[in-house]
Amino acid sequence: xxxxxxxxxxxxxxxxxxxxxxxxxxxxxxxxxxxxxxxxxxxxxxxxxxxxxxxxxxxxxxxxxxxxxxxxxxxxxxxxxxxxxxxxxxxxxxxxxxxxxxxxxxxxxxxxxxxxxxxxxxxxxxxxxxxxxxxxxxxxxxxxxxxxxxxxxxxxxxxxxxxxxxxxxxxxxxxxxxxxxxxxxxxxxxxxxxxxxxxxx
Length: 201
What we know:
By secondary structure, the protein is mainly α. It has two domains: 18-60, Homeodomain-like (Arc Repressor Mutant, subunit A, Orthogonal Bundle), CATH 1.10.10; 63-199, Tetracycline Repressor, domain 2, CATH 1.10.357. The protein has helices at residues 3-10, 20-35, 42-49, 53-59, 63-87, 93-110, 112-121, 127-151, 157-171, 183-199. It is elongated and about 55 Å long. The termini are far apart. This is AcrR family transcriptional regulator. Keywords: DNA-binding, Transcription, Transcription regulation. Residues 41-60 bind DNA.
């Protein structure tokens, strides 16, 4: 039997199991977003995660380390994802913009707690990780600015940045949206509003 035959019999590989560290971090992010950074203790996180203090400190040195671990990878992922989507449409800025909007709307709908954490708690980080996140964010914004500059040549770069940040304000509103509208419709409305804000249609 060939390797291909064996793989077909076995089926696709099982998805990677989430680590205990990832589970604890997700719980911490949810608590920080709901109660505020100072409203949550390590004991609160341990209790919610079902782990004792020593086990918790095995994964994270403290709340500050959790905040860093939550926010830096998100900023890195947005930048890498944005670059990838722009790179898929080197000759079609309209398609690149639509892909960027789809990408960010999905991120925003999947991560409202992370967005809330970023909005309210970023300044609690030490200077170096805060500067790293700001730099990653600026680079991500520039991916949008480059696409907008092609689609709307009447705009200079600062004006395109204003529009990009306005679009993020729309898409990152997910922590404040209720559940009255189903997810698919929310995604469609956010995409439509963002596209209209950026290019007027």
